[in-house]
């Protein structure tokens, strides 16, 4: 078989998604033709793809599932239009999607209809819950912020939305365990966690968005806030980089309990 024929077969395998077989093909081509530019480039691409997959939410949740994590309930705080890895990896859990921006409700309703056991709630998650809170929403509806101060880039005047706490929501649902809690609230993660003390059980897993490079990085503060509850970082996933200087901007922290079944693995 010629190198060109081997490269075509390898590329077809690569396109099929079988990265392991494609990698072996590219390595064989490089053994037969050391330094072959196309084979070397495509082998590098496979390694980059593997890194991207490993850093994804889907992969880390799959690893936790393989280690025995099987949540009875998944709470998605700041769901926007849905977080597919949560229900792709754990389709049998009860999924609760909480989102304050009502314009996302049709999309969430559609997602819930497609799942076996799911519901959505249009509300902001706060420390104590109850009543309503002001919500600033950007014109593109991609970002929202709870509070009286208008954030940079906010659009129309603030609207009022119902407020709930995770402690209250979990109690209302009968406190099922184990829990998976994903939090993406554009800066108010610590407020949400302060209202989630009852959820901090040994078999709970948290996935929390944390900034790294803004004026007041939230990553160290989130880690410090969870430490008294005996939670520690198990993985760091979904890195985002600022386009203007390629500096890391934010990540998602995966946190597990020190006494939980996943910490020593």
From TrEMBL:
Transmembrane stretches, start-end: none
Sample GO molecular function, one term: O-methyltransferase activity
Cross-referenced SUPFAM superfamilies: S-adenosyl-L-methionine-dependent methyltransferases (SSF53335)
Superkingdom of source: Bacteria
Keywords: Methyltransferase, Transferase
One GO term of the biological process aspect: methylation
All residue ranges annotated as the Methyltransferase FkbM domain in the record: 76-227
InterPro entries: FkbM_Methyltransferase, FkbM_mtfrase, SAM-dependent_MTases_sf
Listed name of the protein: FkbM family methyltransferase
Lineage: Bacteria, Pseudomonadati, Pseudomonadota, Alphaproteobacteria, Rhodospirillales
